[in-house]
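Record filed below.
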Amino acid sequence: MTGDRMWRTTGWRRAMEEAAGKSPENPKVKKLYSKAEQILADAASPEKLKGNPYKGKPLNFDRENPFEKEFSMGNRLLKNAGYRPPWIEVREEILAEKRALRRALDQHLAFLERALEGGSSRTTLRVRHDQFLEEIRDRIEKLHREIVRFNLEVPIIDQQVVNIRFESFTREMRSAAERLLALE
């Protein structure tokens, strides 16, 4: 196996784990990852794929819940009993935090507008704005790591959450705040 091929099979996992703050420090875990990556690379080798009857044909991705067919009765019982898998609760917490961040940005802009109308000093408001941005940056970075971890663990790919970054998530609010605080 070439080094390039090994990178393609392990690089994405390593990058995602590092972004999520996970790193297999335990030698047993490293050995297990290494063995799994070797098996995957071997299974995806061109020699193994030559006799594949689906070669050149489009893949049929079933968009349904993969757990529905085999475990439908069990899932129905659990759902009726009020049980939800932990990943669903984590997803809802992530989405709630995204909404809370958006609300905080809107409230901060409204605060700046009210404070300027009330005659507050732009210098004081700029200091408070910078403090707010640092707090939001910390919250967004924490949420970013949680989303990466969640997307690695969620069993249904359609349920992954779109990740956020500070620059893109706060771009509109920062430009509006700059316009407000720059006016003399």
